[in-house]
Amino acid sequence: MTVPVIKIKVLPKPVIKGKMDVRFPANVATTNFLTVTKSNGTYTFGVDYTLLGEFTQLNPATAKVAFYDAAQSTYSIISVANLFTSSLDVDLQAIAALTGTGLLARTASGIWALRSLTAPAAGFTITNPDGVAGNPTFALANDLAAVEGLSGTGIARRTGADAWSVGTAVANAELATMANNTFKGNVSGSTAVPADLTPAQVTAALPVATASAKGLAPQLPNNATLYLDGTGNFTSPSSGGNLSPEERAYWVGLAAMLDPAAYVLYTGKFSLTVPAGETLYVLNAWSAVIAGGTSSWFHRDLAASEAFEVSAGTTISWDGISNTAFLYVCRPALVSGDSKYADPKALYFQRLNTLRSIALSQLAASVASGSAPGTLVRTQFPTDFSDGIFAQVSVMDAPWCILADALLWGVSNTTNEISDVHQYRITKTLMTAFVRETMPYIEVQSANVSGNGTDVSTFTSRGVMAYYKLPGTWRATPTRAYKAAVLADSPSRYFTFDELSIGTGTAPNLGSAASADATYVGTLGYAMGGATGDGSTSVAMNSTDDYISLPSSTDWNLAGSDFTFEFWVRFDSLPTPSASSDPWLVNGWVTSNGDTDNSFLVTVQNNKITLLVKYADATTGTVSSTISLATDTFYHVIVGRSGSTLFVRVVGKETRQTVAVSKNLITRNSKLTMLGNSFAGGASPGSFRLTGRLDEFAFYKSALSDARADAHHAATLGWV
Description:
The protein contains 8 helices and 47 strands.
């Protein structure tokens, strides 16, 4: 029989309708994923989704998907492409619609375009401008590449296509041409581009160019007369530009003796050799020897006009007799490089003329008639100035009038004398500069007619000092060679102790560490003669509560790192030599009551500078100098660690002393470091204090080499 064909139409409803011409018994079959079942004479058609095949590729534009719309109770079909794009953000749809390659650029809301970077015609190139093959890369080219490749300094010049050079002087041929007999300038009366000026215009602007003036310019303020020198500058016929080297040296010396920044005060066991190319002017010397002599030398006259000139190569030192020897010298080399000294002759007369407008001040000290022999009276200068010039001293029925420092040591005579007790009458013009804080007192002692040390004073003994208080702009800026040498080695902490007043309580850190200023504690003496021979000062510690505090820092946790402490120290007194640590100079051991983080200590043991350290395993290590210490002289000390050795050295007196080390130091737990004092179980410092002076303290987070320490030492003058 003929197999009937059933046509099925799928309507947009869950119903399958069919028209069949069936005669039973019949054979009903389906194809693809349709199914038919018969039960109790009823044929049931359905869909078997398991019969659907899996595809590996489709065209999203032609592939369709059927969806049931619950709201309409209908089925709908939609292409796969529209299915995934119709619900996306408009920007994403715009991106999806793009074709081609390049960098994306959003030109408006829902609008995107492909872009590519374009290099200029010259200057730089772009690799991968559209980003397809990799990141776009820019590189300088042509002239820009040539300029970027230059080294050195100077004016950059284009010497050819894509070629540049630097530092080459501009040749005259490269300058713009000028009309004959003209000058470049501007005489328009306002700011303007330079133009060619005629001789008439130049003459009108600069009277010095007139023929009648013959090179001079008489119409200047204060009736000054200048001439056009060989360098193209207008200078005075008697100015620095017209002085011979010999004349300049002479006038620099005179001007420097009126400059407090040019003076150096030595006290104690000094020894110096005048450097090559320098001349020193001795204003005062007491208990010294000169030029290798053996007899004590005294130059008591403080007057600048009586200064004793000492040439290069001459040695001046204490006489080996009196520890209170002193030397007050003017060292012009400290200030001659300052711009104030461009014309030293003019500067000298300018300073003398300025003194005419400064009121004289006076300070007096007197001892009453009938006072016991040796009675001394001391008077302090007022503290409303720092720099001054001694104008005149008057001694009336006294043996002398001398100057004293902050420790009340006599550090300078003012005039000659007969004896320490013989009354004397003299008036002396001085005109010698000084720093008040360095010489803050005058002293007068009782005297008698007979000159007998047992007699009472015959008359009232008086000393009177007339002086000028100088303005702050008077002094030059001195050269500090030692300071420059230390800073060249990048210390973490560096304190010069040049403060003229401890009233601020702070020593600024000149090293690299931030927030690391030191604090003065106690009653330190300030503005004491320094170690470097350049007019800088030191601080003195002479009471039980004096010390300098370096703030708490992790830098004091030295562990196994290299480090160096560098400083200058002078002892006014020393304990009897013993194995005990006394005094303590650099204290990272005990800095507060109960401090047990004992890490490092620079001290004196058996009269020698010693570095003591404690390791993390509680064992200790020491290394000592070979130099036996004395009082009243400065020592230049370096101590520290360099790799596998601890070291100590008194620079200029010995080679480096070392011991092996392979352990880490115990941590300080960021505690402070103390200079010049100790805590030892009590509530206040003082057990192992320094009686003396400290100067130029530096801490390096590295091992300072002997060569650099020697370079620092060579930048000083006065201590060997």
